Amino acid sequence: MSDDCVFCSIAAGEIPARTVYETDSVLAFLDANPLARGHTLMIPKSHARHVGDLDADLASELFDAVASLTPRIQAAVDADGANVGVNDGAAAGQEVPHVHVHVVPRFEGDGGAPIHAVAGERPDLSDDELDAVADEVAAAIDG
Fold it and tell me: Boundaries of each HIT domain copy (predicted)?
């Protein structure tokens, strides 16, 4: 737990939330400033600032909940689809420094955009540049 984290305070029951799902490790609740009817946040109860800070078991539990609950959230609000996303770091728009997954129900004609719209202008990368980036990412993953 982090003393100054609003999501830790919600997980501890110190701040009320509209909880829709809870286990020992994961909490799901409606977003207080929803982008759509049924907009739900899923968090690990223990504090983790970034996705990479989650241990394997907790990451598995969190993303198992996302996979299980997303279609149920859609069904509950009769949505036609959903955007599922994580803002990881301030540069990515993370406003609360605690890992959280957004499930935003989507409805035909709602005026929303695909996830690609969040990144702004797309880079114009050549095949050589894409190959170089792929090599850099693969090297970083391999360690």
Answer: 6-113
| CA–CA distance, 8 with 11 (Å, rounded to integer) | 5
Q: What is the CATH number of the domain that holds 74?
A: 3.30.428.10
| Cα-Cα end-to-end distance for the chain | 30
Judge whether 47 counts as a catalytic residue.
no
Percent of the chain predicted with pLDDT > 70: 99
**Is the CB of residue 45 less than 8 Å from the CB of residue 27?**
yes
DSSP 123: P
pTM over 0.90: yes
| Tokens standing for residue 120 | 């702004």
For residue 16, give its domain range. Answer: 6-142
